[in-house]
Design goal:
This is DUF6396 domain-containing protein. The protein is an all-alpha fold and 412 residues long. It has 17 helices and no strands.
Length: 412
């Protein structure tokens, strides 16, 4: 190629480049007015290196989120219960539950049961402890509000030695409701996560709900799997709502066999809707089950009872003896679950005076009231939580606690 030709082509290329740069400059001038169109190149955009760096940072953030959310299933271990304290607990509970429907808060009935619950709880009966916290904090007795509040926190401090995860979850609820304890603002999630990691089934269920609703698309699938893991862990410990929602989620994924197992566990855990799902399943409406009219009928009966008597928190541990899953044959059934027979049956024998005195003396309690023989002063009682002290100006007690904190589910 001649030298003159090369020069000509170079000049043309330079002119073209100059025209292109001039076009870009003119196109991006703001001429004022409305409706002016500007090409994409007029706006500052990250170059390829900046985009790569941003992608790496996003991936690192996602991995950090996953690490922070990762969960290992821990099951809270329940210590053995004394036959002697269970005599007190069962006697009080039978009367307690049978009065829940006709009774009213503060009618005086529950005050007569306090010595039984108090003496049993002081001797290490965690079921009596949890039930006593409920009837005191929810206003069923005539115990003055401040005194009830102090006693509840003393009970929960005692519960920490037996069921630390449950006690931590209840403490979280008291903080949320402003019930005599305080914590830094917005710390409820930290308390919830701590209780779940320690093994609280209720905390695991609530945490699963919160994890599922985090607004973060990049971790969507990871969080759904984590939600199922939390549901499963809580379900295996007796949390009925966790069983139900695990079953619903698995059913939506077409994992029908797993869903049936989750609902079955949910019925054992006392969830009426889990029973209804299985009833619909055996009617041929859900879960890819072979229709079975008798199984559907039995699940409907169970569902109705669990729903109608939800305030008693019934469970169905005897489900295998009533309506086992196929291919197991159906046994004879009188139409009642074991819990129902117990509640409707003869009242357990009243604990003897000798047993009451023995257990009261062991715990240094007044046998007539179940209270300590030497009453603690209010400042001493207020030291139940050194890390989260009772406020010097405790907030007014709510009429009723939030539904999650009524902890109706009796520990089983």
């Amino acid at each position: 190629m001649k030298r003159s030709t090369k020069i000509t082509l170079s000049v043309i290329a330079l002119i073209g480049l100059a025209l292109y740069m001039a076009y870009r400059w003119i196109a991006c001038i703001d001429m004022g007015g409305t409706g002016q169109y500007k090409p994409d190149f007029c706006y500052n955009k990250p170059n390829w290196f900046e985009r790569l760096q941003a992608k790496r940072e996003t991936m690192n953030n996602i991995e950090e989120i996953k690490r922070n959310l990762e969960f290992t299933c821990v099951r809270e271990q329940r210590p053995p219960l004394s036959e002697e304290t269970q005599q007190l607990y069962n006697y009080a509970l039978h009367r307690d539950l049978n009065h829940m429907w006709p009774g009213e808060r503060g009618d005086g009935f529950w005050d007569n049961l306090l010595p039984y619950y108090r003496i049993a709880a002081a001797n290490g009966d965690y079921k009596a402890n949890v039930r006593l916290q409920f009837i005191l904090s929810d206003g069923w007795t005539q115990v003055p509000e401040i005194e009830a509040e102090i006693e509840v926190h003393q009970l929960n401090k005692l519960l920490q030695k037996q069921l630390p995860a449950t006690a931590y979850y209840l403490l979280k609820g008291y903080i949320e409701d402003g019930y005599g304890v305080s914590a830094p603002p917005d710390s409820e999630l930290a308390f919830l996560r701590k209780a779940a990691d320690m093994g609280s089934r209720d905390a695991q269920f609530v945490l699963a709900e919160k994890v599922a609703w985090i607004d973060h698309e990049e971790t969507h699938e990871f969080r759904l799997e984590l939600m199922r893991k939390l549901y499963r862990c809580a379900s295996e410990q007796g949390q009925g709502d966790a069983s139900k929602w695990l079953g619903i989620n698995l059913s939506g994924l077409g994992r029908h066999q797993e869903a049936v197992a989750a609902f079955y566990q949910g019925v054992k855990n006392g969830n009426s809707q889990a029973a209804l799902w299985l009833a619909d399943g055996f009617e041929g409406l859900e879960l890819n089950l072979t229709p079975d009219a008798e199984r559907a009928r039995r699940y409907n009966i169970i569902s109705d009872y669990l729903s109608n008597y939800d305030f008693m928190s019934p469970k169905v541990p005897d489900l295998d003896e009533i309506v086992p899953l196929p291919p197991a044959p159906l046994p004879e059934w009188d139409g009642k679950i074991a819990f129902q027979r117990w509640v409707e049956g003869k009242e357990p024998p009243k604990p003897s005076d000798e047993l009451m005195k023995k257990l009261a003396d062991q715990a240094k309690l007044d046998v007539k009231t179940g209270l300590p023989l030497a009453e603690p002063t209010q400042p001493e009682a207020a030291k139940a939580y050194s890390a989260h002290p009772v406020s010097s100006n405790p907030p007014q007690k709510p009429q009723t606690l939030s539904w999650r904190q009524k902890f109706k589910n009796l520990l089983s």
